[in-house]
Amino acid sequence: MTRRDRPTTAPPWPVWVPAGLALLFLGLPIVGLLVRAPWSRMWEILTSPTSLDALRLSLVTASAATLVTIVIGIPLAWLLARADFRGRGVVRALVTVPLVLPPVVGGIALLLAFGRRGIMGQYLDSCCGITLPFTTPGVVVAETFVAMPFLVITIEGALRGLDTRFEDAAATLGAGRLTVFRRVTLPLILPSIAAGVVLTFARALGEFGATITFAGNLRGVTQTLPLAVYIGLEGDPDEAIALSLVLLAVSVVVLVALRDKWLRTGAAS
Amino acid sequence: MSGLDARVVVRRPAFTLDVALDVAPGEVVAVLGPNGAGKSTLLRTICGLEPLGEGHIRLGDVLVDEPSTNTLVPAAKRRVGIVFQDYRLFPHLTVLDNVAFGPRSAGRSARHSRDAATTWIERLRLVDLVGRKPGALSGGQAQRVALARALASDPSVLLLDEPLAALDAGTRLDVRSDLREHLHEFDGPTLLVTHDPLDALVLADRLVVLEEGSITQQGTALDVARRPATAYVARLLGLNLLRGSAHDGDVMIDGGGTVHVTDRGVAGAVLVAVRPSAISLHTQQPEGSARNVWAGTVDGIESIGDRVRVTVAGAPTVMVDVTAAAITDLDVRRGTAVWLSAKATELEVYPG
Predict the structure, then answer these.
(1) Which residues of B are less than 8 Å from A188 in CB distance?
(2) Of the candidates A253, A251, A233, A252, which has an alpha carbon nearest to the alpha carbon of residue A242?
(3) Is residue A4 part of a domain?
(4) pLDDT by residue for chain B (352 residues), tens digit each?
(5) Is B23 helix (H, G, I), strand (E, B) or coil?
(6) What is the ipTM of this complex?
(7) Helix and strand numbers, DSSP H then E, in chain A
(8) How far is A170 from chain B (nearest CA, A)?
(9) B238-351 is classed in which CATH architecture?
(10) Dist CA B25 CA B227 (whole Å)
(11) What is the CATH number of the domain that holds A127?
(12) What gap in Å lies between CA B111 and CA B98, rounded to an integer?
């Protein structure tokens, strides 16, 4: 760009210095991960029993957490966006709490609710013999708790932004409210649902604090990828780096999947 | 099949809609009015997207909304087919599935719904388009799909909201005559809302003029066109409308001036309608047989199609249509003093 056609809103040159520092700060760790990766031993590490257990468990629990979130999170988003009830603001705040709450605190809160002596957990234990802490379902609970807000907030926003013209048209054609939601509303917000699902899955996959607090760190049972990375750092750092690369790859895939939603700046947003 | 009977009252902070309507089965009634007159609100109450403030709506034998008896049937249970101005075809469904949406919502199987949809698709000549998504349709095609979708839900009343407004001038002509044909095939009552007088004249059996929430005139297209009741209708139809009082063939115009009409029988408050093309424009006092001659000043000149419409301030103030050549010949511009003449036979006078 030449001097003549530079827009008047372009920042002056001193801004480039701190901006460059920021970029370096964000980029360098990624570079470090790539440079120090044990490329020659990669396959061997990733196919070791510990790694395979962690990979499999992470995949299963993150998928389950996403599924649970879809089943109960979409109705919650629908209520928040369209139902008129007292205390809606409180409910919305409650939904947002796990987003800002330190995951470790979330884990402790889950213990107090669903632990063996928890306000709910004691009944689950005595009546049905269900124990959640330190089990694989417990991992799913922890991941769901932390990840659900992403789906609810994404879909609620989409529902609020949706023009009701098509839903009105569907109603005049004789469709009841559930039919309208299923056949018109959901398909129209499908891109947002997809974005919410991808975000939820990514967040569930990366969950660490709530999981280790509520479900512990038992290999093959509750030791997900992030936990394996953390443990690996003490024993075999190469293993930690290799597994970290797997999580990095997932992050890249998520970014690519969501590029239309967030990364395209300017006119689209 | 019976008709539509409604008294619609909706109160808004700055606006009240109060309209009584009665549309017989098979009849097409056009509600003609300027923007903001309450036309769309009227349709929204009838199809159930907005509740009445007062009054009642009866579709056939079914009372669907009556605040005084706490009756309110939701939109989904009203059997009203509506074609929206922007069509509102579901963008994620094909033409076939859009048309089948009504039958499907009524609980019919996917297969039966598609069969029902296909009947309408054939009737509205949409067979080649069944697999397309609405995004790939032209305006005229989308309009036909919207009509097919509304009719496929087997409505007892058909509503059309500015059905041709979204089309360009070229396709509008074809679609309009097409639509006329289809509307006459529908045996229930049809209510059409438009601000285009041509739509109303071509499509409707009867006109209802709605201004600022109230009906100001209704009647057959011919009645309304020949004897407009308000300045809005007259302007819409390109007519001069003068209000005054008549006595023995002379009409004293309210704003000043007197015109002579052939009908000596009318007396009292009257309206005089005269086409702008029936008035002649002169730069000197004309000599001739015209009984109405008066002076004025050119106040505005605007071209409409191949003619030029000149507004002349005088007693009375009128619009005059002349050819573009005449404007040049006469050297007329804003502020020019001119003479006007009109034959008494060109003035339509009626009680108003």
Answers:
(1) 91-92
(2) A233
(3) no
(4) 479 999 999 999 888 999 999 999 999 999 999 888 999 999 999 999 999 999 999 998 899 999 999 999 999 999 999 999 999 999 999 999 999 999 999 989 999 999 999 999 999 889 999 999 999 999 889 999 999 999 999 999 999 999 888 888 777 877 887 888 889 889 999 999 998 887 887 789 999 999 999 999 999 877 887 788 888 888 887 788 888 999 888 999 988 889 998 888 888 888 888 888 889 999 888 887 778 999 999 988 888 777 888 999 998 999 898 888 888 888 888 888 999 999 888 888 888 7
(5) strand
(6) 0.79
(7) 14, 0
(8) 8
(9) Beta Barrel (2.40)
(10) 27
(11) 1.10.3720.10
(12) 14
Q: Does B59 touch chain A (CB under 8 A)?
A: no
Per the rule left: phi > 0, alpha: psi between -120 and 50, beta: everything else, B79 is: left
A175 touches chain B (CB under 8 A): yes
Domain spans, chain B: 4-230, 238-351
CA–CA gap between residue A100 and residue A158 (Å, rounded): 21
Q: Is B48 on the interface with A (CB under 8 A)?
A: yes
**Class of CATH domain B4-230:** alpha beta
| Interface touch B75/A190, C-beta < 8 Å | no
Q: Does B169 touch chain A (CB under 8 A)?
A: no
Give which of B342, B328, B246, B335 is closest to B288, Cα–Cα. Answer: B342
Closest approach of A190 to chain B, Cα-based (Å):
10
Domain containing residue A155: 41-261
Residue A28 inside a domain? The answer is no
Report pTM: 0.79
Does residue A30 form part of some domain?
no
What is the number of domains present in chain A? Answer: 1
Phi, psi of A268 (to 5 degrees): -65, -35
Would residue A2 count as lying in a domain?
A: no
